[in-house]
Automatic annotation (TrEMBL):
The organism of origin for this protein: Siminovitchia terrae (Bacillus terrae)
Keyword Membrane: yes
Keyword match Lyase: no
Cell compartments where the protein resides: Cell membrane
Stated name of the protein: MFS transporter
UniProt-listed PANTHER family: FI19708P1-RELATED, SOLUTE CARRIER FAMILY 17
Gene3D superfamilies given in the database record: MFS general substrate transporter like domains
Lineage of the organism: Bacteria, Bacillati, Bacillota, Bacilli, Bacillales
Domain named Major facilitator superfamily (MFS) profile: residues: 11-411
Alphabetical keyword list: Membrane, Transmembrane, Transmembrane helix, Transport
Annotated TM spans: 51-73, 80-99, 105-122, 143-163, 169-189, 231-252, 272-289, 296-316, 322-345, 357-378, 384-406
Length: 426
């Protein structure tokens, strides 16, 4: 009898599509705010600060509810948590399409944040329960691929859909994806644990369970992750990631059109290219991490590259090169998301993974406020988007320093693993 691969053929695709559609729901607003009819309907012309608040409103509840969902997912399981979250965010998208004022649109974004707050705790709980430590890089890559492939394919679709219909229709289309793709996948393909799944055979279950024993030997876990300085160093790095992710992803379409003079179709293509670059970065990063077992070191290097990419984007005069460098910065952030979530799973017990990821998810609030701050900078400087981008330059280097605090632990973990392996051979 061969070992089944249910974790890859059933669970991983479900998580992939959750993030693909969920992230498109999240960042799709960045394309909608470039539409003139939308700006007129919401009376937002020339109001960059208010436009930035559309993402801030989302992230406030996204971050706060993430901690709440972290405790819920540890109690009721990731599957039921996902179902509840999907229902909430489907309703919120329908509300967005029906919004007749800026206030009602903000309300729909807040409710979307509440529903999507499940994502980090739910995903990390699934991965902690279903995958062997040796597979963490690939397992985390699976959903991060979805997070970036969703916008890569979906943003050009939204640009086209808005051009042939209206901005309202784009909200209804996004709601349909959640209702008719994600919800059935979660209901029929996932279960909370491998032992509960109808397609898992005894060999796969034995392999997954052996991973929990291997993890306890490789990494010395504290009984309370809140007392583990490694956890807080990862949280600091994640804070930098949220600032960079929301600052870049939300303002990129507007930046390409307003600051660099690209047409809507060119903007859609370049934005899509940036998300595709992110997928390549995640794939490459996952392979390197699995080979080196040094996620913090790799993360620090990528943070530095991100910082110089943003600096180049702000200062260079060539529009196309600036667009590519901004895409490279987004790709770096994408791979950092993989690194941070891998480290959270590594440094927390499976029973507490949901809470650990949920508490960390609260930091999304800070990232969301960055979009409003950048909008204010644009307004106060007479429409200078390059100065707004320069605001982001310092954050990658802070992230690199936070990961540097984990280098020593990584070396010790690798040494421990080597000694354990030698002892088992004897």
């Amino acid at each position: 009898m061969k070992r089944s691969r249910t974790r890859w053929f059933f669970l991983a695709p479900s998580i992939f599509f959750l993030w693909a559609v969920g992230n498109l729901d999240k960042v799709g607003i960045s394309v909608i705010v470039t539409n003139d009819n939308f700006l007129q309907s919401m009376e937002l012309n020339g109001k960059s600060t208010e436009i930035g608040l559309l993402m801030t409103g989302f992230t406030v509840l996204y971050g706060l509810s993430s901690a709440f969902w972290g405790y819920i997912v540890d109690r009721i399981g990731p599957r039921l948590t996902a179902i509840i979250g999907l229902i909430i965010w489907t309703v919120s998208l329908i509300m967005g399409g029906l919004a007749g004022s800026y206030g009602s649109l903000i309300a729909s974004r807040v409710i979307l944040g509440l529903g999507e707050g499940i994502m980090f705790p739910m995903t990390n709980k699934f991965i902690a329960q279903w995958f062997h430590p040796k597979e963490l890089g690939k397992a985390q890559s699976t959903w991060v691929y979805g997070q970036y492939l969703g916008p890569a394919l979906g943003i050009p679709m939204l640009v086209w859909l808005i051009s042939i219909s209206s901005w309202e229709v784009s909200f209804f289309a996004l709601a349909g994806f959640s209702l008719f793709i994600n919800l059935p996948l979660v209901i029929f393909l996932t279960r909370d644990t491998p032992a509960q799944h109808y397609a898992v055979n005894s060999l796969e279950l034995e392999y997954i369970e052996s991973g929990k024993t291997a993890k306890s030997k490789e990494v010395q876990l504290k009984s309370n992750f809140l007392k583990d300085k490694r956890y807080w160093l990862v949280c600091l790095a994640f804070l930098m990631i949220t600032v960079l992710f929301y600052g870049i992803s939300f303002w990129m379409p507007t930046y390409l059109e307003k600051a660099r003079g690209f047409s809507p179709s060119e903007m859609g293509s370049l934005t899509s290219l940036s998300w595709l670059m992110a997928i390549i970065a995640v794939f490459t990063c996952g392979i390197i991490i699995d080979k080196t077992r040094r996620p913090a070191l790799i993360g620090s290097i990528i943070f530095v590259i991100c910082g110089f990419s943003i600096l180049t984007t702000s200062l260079i005069s060539n529009a196309l090169v600036a667009a590519i460098m901004l895409g490279l910065a987004l790709a770096c952030v994408a791979s950092q998301l993989l690194v941070s979530q891998l480290l959270i799973v590594k440094y927390s017990n499976p029973r507490d993974t949901g809470k650990a990821a949920g508490i960390m998810g609260v930091l999304n609030i800070v990232g969301g406020f960055v979009t409003t701050i950048m909008g204010y900078i644009v307004d106060s400087t007479g429409g200078n988007y390059n100065i707004a981008l320069l605001f982001l330059v310092l954050f990658p280097f802070i992230g690199a320093l936070s990961y540097a605090g984990l280098f020593r632990n990584e070396k010790q973990d690798i040494a421990t693993t080597a000694l354990t392996g030698t002892a088992s051979l004897k």
